[in-house]
Amino acid sequence: MMKRLTFKNDLRASTRSNAGFSLIELLVVVAVILIIAAIAIPNYMKSKMRANEASAVQNLRNVATAELVYSTTYGVDFSSTLLQLSGDGINPSQNNAGLIDEILASGIKSGYVVTYTPVTFDPKGNPSTYSVTADPQVPGTTGSRHYYTDQSCVIRWNDNVQAGPTDPPIN
Fold first, then answer.
1. Residue 2 to residues 11, 88, 130, Cα–Cα distance (Å)
2. Which of 8, 63, 76, 78 is in Cβ range 3.0-4.6 Å of 126 for a Cys bridge?
């Protein structure tokens, strides 16, 4: 009879130990998850910023190419606004060229603020030179570099302030 009682007690003890996780085990799992998150989240943010910066460079290339096509197509130097380069493209005109998308023409795309500025004008009032800048909406979060291009189609960058014509070109 003594053996049976011991067997029942052993059975209860083993059942109780398999019933769930201990507090220590749960804390270890949570600590491991937090360590993985601490490593992964900054890398994700940096990757997102680099992707936004690559998109900003491509957007400046698109604007510069669209300006060259606009100039050739309509016989004027350049457009007055980004909105003139935009449009549906179904019935292209000088004010609705359909060369860039509406999102880029709005001036904000992929975490960057794109600013188009006519610089000098010909005798008819059409822009003969222009500049385009792309600056992060939230520096350090949506991007860290500032970009610039003009009618030369050379894209330049600056890490600290708005880029300009004297900054180094991207490689």
1. 14, 91, 98
2. 76
The answer for residues whose C-beta is within 8 angstroms of residue 115's C-beta and 6 or more apart is 107, 132, 133, 134, 135
Question: In the structure, what pLDDT confidence band is assigned to residue 135 with cuts at 50, 70 and 90?
Answer: very high
Per-residue pLDDT tens for 10-61? Answer: 555 555 556 688 999 999 999 999 999 998 888 889 999 999 999 999 999 9
Tokens matching residue 3: 């053996």
CB 49 within 8 A of CB 138: no
Place of tokens 């003139």: 84
8 Å CB contact between 66 and 78 = no
* Cα 136-138-143 angle, rounded to 5 deg: 45
Please give the single-letter amino acid code of residue 7.
Answer: F
For residue 166, give the 3-state DSSP assignment. coil
The three-state secondary structure class of 116 is: strand
Q: Specify the 3-state DSSP secondary structure of 82.
A: helix
Give pLDDT tens digits for 74-118: 999 999 999 999 988 788 999 999 999 999 999 999 999 999 999
Are the C-beta atoms of residues 139 and 127 closer than 8 Å to each other?
no
Strand partners, 132: 116, 149
